[in-house]
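Support request, please re-run this one:
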Amino acid sequence: MNQQNHKTCGKLIICVVREGHGDRVVAVTRENGAKGGTIVPGRGKSDNPLVDFLCIGDHREEVVLTLVNGEEVASVINALKAHGRDTQKGSRGMGILLNVPRIIHHAGKGSTACEAVGRREAVKKDEGRVMICVIVNWGCADDLMAIARKAGAVGGTILKARGTASEEDVKFLGIPLFPEKEILLVVTERSRSSAILEALEKSDCLLRPGGGIAFSVDVEELINLGGDIA
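Re-run finished. Output below.
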């Protein structure tokens, strides 16, 4: 029987944990239905301005990306919550649940149709929080985190990335090429998100041509992976 690409719906779980804990998160999700995960190294920014001023506020983190089909969402979420309860407070972390309306994958055993998932929503939507994502040229993320904090954000995670623009793109667009990028992720209350985005919009980094982009997405649920969630 020939297999082909198949469309399903599901959830994207973004787990932000201290360095060295990402593999355990992947193991927990796989044991409860997930097919795997991707671990990305990151850098956390302290929510204490004094600690940041003393240059000791940064700490290494790992960001685990897990795409889960609708049928497995509930079991994976419950397993992560149990893992969070068993995790030491010094190993604090957070899971962020986002809706994914369309997934394209190689069809096989266990494929789930979008319509079926839509009728059986596994989790209740968290109306109170959003995740702000900012993709900027290298060297801007720390400044943008400071701006976001002044506008009401508590903390964030910075990921190192690489741009894909070619020399031809530069000639066509007429902007400098900055291959090294940074991604800033900030989870905040919905009531603060507009002020944060407006403050970021006025930053020098985003005002420059080709400087970057910022957007927000709804958070369906936050998962405590150790410590307190603000």
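Helices lie at 22-31, 49-53, 73-86, 114-119, 141-150, 167-173, 190-201, 204-207. The longest strand covers residues 5-18.
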